Amino acid sequence: MRVLVTGATGFIGQHVCGALSSTKHDIWATSSAGPDRGSHLTSSLPVHRYTMGGHLPVDLIGWEPEAVLHLAWEGIPDLGPEICNKNVYDQLRFLEQVCDLPSVRKVVVAGSCLEYGDARGPCTESLVAGTADVFGRAKDEIRRSLEASCVGSGIDITWLRIFYSYGPGQRSGGLIPSLVDSLVRGEQVHLGSPDAAHDFVHVGDVAAAFVCALEQPDTAGIFNVGSGQQTSVADVARLVTATWSRDSPVDGLGSTAAGVTAVTGMWADLAQTYRFLDWRPRVDLAIGIVETTQWFVRRLERGRIRGSDL
Predict the structure, then answer these.
(1) Which of 40, 110, 185, 230 could bond 197 through an S-S bridge, CB–CB 3.0 to 4.6 Å?
(2) What pTM did the predictor assign?
């Protein structure tokens, strides 16, 4: 299958491209940053520069993509109203163009658990979101507009609501990279909201969900992509510091005992995803955090070595 992937040099996009590289699909990868932002996961693929909302390249149209995996989101980590509104406008222009291509039969889009707003406990895909933030509302607007425009087109729209993804390549402002950075610097780790809990899902599992959505027939609809359980920020910090050093100082781990998390957040109900996508998370959180922590430690130490050589 000929597959167009947007956001190919982003955190999740790199891993999706890496997962696709072991399949027989032909890939056309795009990024607004161009090929220079790629990693070893995209090194075997040519990455084409494309600015979301612009006219589709003539070469891409001639290539006749059969499926689109849409992961692009401009401006991260800025998720304010201005950048979200721009994303809605630009992405709907892009999606309108690709859905007008006669060759396209499937579109798989990266949604967000933030579409569920301030929900708590297990979230099913039919849950009506309440008080979603600007980013969650922007994602939901894109989904509704896309689905409405594709009614009767024969195109399957698959919307993956991704929970809190983590793993190698995550942006430096994320929870685990921030913790690792403090530990490497020898600083005490401070947690502002240790009892906050989220559904943390490894980016490798997220990438596998995109491949499943691409390859499973008749998968139109909304599907949760998460671990199916909540974990407190304090417990993530404990796992990170245990990987680094059991004697590392951590301040503000909260009142909840290790491994016992009160219901303070949301997590993915995965029944529909299991049934229709034949996907389930494979990476254990503790193992995933060890892998992620070690990856960031190596990256930071390489940076320090390069800096000392200058």
Answers:
(1) 230
(2) 0.90
